[in-house]
UniProtKB/TrEMBL annotation:
Cited PANTHER family: SUCCINATE--HYDROXYMETHYLGLUTARATE COA-TRANSFERASE
Keywords annotated in UniProt: Transferase
Single GO term (MF): CoA-transferase activity
Pfam families xrefs: CoA_transf_3
Protein name: Crotonobetainyl-CoA:carnitine CoA-transferase CaiB
UniProt cross-references to InterPro entries, sorted A to Z: CoA-transferase_III_domain, CoA-Trfase_fam_III, CoA-Trfase_III_dom3_sf, CoA-Trfase_III_dom_1_sf
Organism: Marinobacterium stanieri
Lineage of origin: Bacteria, Pseudomonadati, Pseudomonadota, Gammaproteobacteria, Oceanospirillales
Amino acid sequence: MDKPLAGVRVLDLSRILAGPWCSQHLADLGAEVIKVEHPKRGDDTRSWGPPYLKNTREAAYFLSANRGKESVAIDIAHPEGQQLIRELASQVDVVLENFKVGGLARYGLDYESLKAVKPDLIYCSITGFGQDGPYAERAGYDFLLQGMGGLMSLTGQPESVPGSEPVKVGVAITDLFTGMYAATAILSALLQRDRTGDGVWIDLSLLDVQVGVLANQAMNYLTTGNSPERMGNAHPNIVPYQVFPSADGHIILAVGNDTQFQRFCEVAGIPELAGDSDYATNNSRVENREQLIPQLSACIAKHPSAFWLDELEKVGVPCGPINNLAQVFADPQICHRGMRIERQHPEAGSVPLVSNPIRFNGHALNAETAPPALGEHTLEVLQRLLPNQNSRLDQLKIEGVIR
């Protein structure tokens, strides 16, 4: 199948997660992604282990965000390396970078400099706080942004629970969302360029993204003036919608409307609760959650998780388990959908990866190659895009400008 971004070329100067997550997504969609790395250390996440892929020193972290790319090792601190980047930029559609504000300007690799060699260039900058404002010069890290952007004020057990504290999400969710916003912005810019012929400078801030995805909780604040507080696994606007202990573990009960609550009460043997004016509507359940939740907890604790999962599924009440990752990747639905994939790796033989969830006409969109070794494609890419310069490239390799 011809992939939707076939023919699009991306020069990826980013590292860690937000930028690489974006460029991996573009690679899955068919773009040619040239990942520029430092000749000696490469992307920082190559060494963010253990764990490492078997028989290698490639960290699992790096493998999570870099499939389908060509690794080109160039020292951009060297004038010759900077010149190589400018020459490559003249032949790509997109440049993606996540240096600090002004970090690439000193190398002559900022938007204005590269626009001079490629007037219709799409240039995407990802920073912690954006290109302007009082925090623009600061470095930004996902953990910090989850705190500064309000997410950690919403995540964790309530303040009243002994020992409770704000908690970050278990993956770098701000980075991941920023990567996806970057991909969306780049795709939109490509469409715009097709109409107008103009390139664009995309400015993405991790802090902006984190605030942007506060969703209903942001609106809960903006419409009331009251800051939502940590509620553990409870939902601020829906009841019952949280984790409950069963006789042998825990389940998630996610009642989304009044009819589902009635069905739950019938299965649970407490139909009178559904008819009680204090609990009959979601509005009343939210107002009276302090009285309702202990009653539901006592009822659910009488039966094992399997009972609730089976019986509630029969009547269409959303209910689910809390799986660890071994259970996730053994789940029959995950297996059927092919969410674990394998790609050939020159050192390990193969590498397990997580599939891109997008499907076109029943086909998952995944890049065909594993995450690259450091500098694996340096000469191949440079010889292809900068032909008839073998002697120059040989000299740059001797000097350590490229690997």
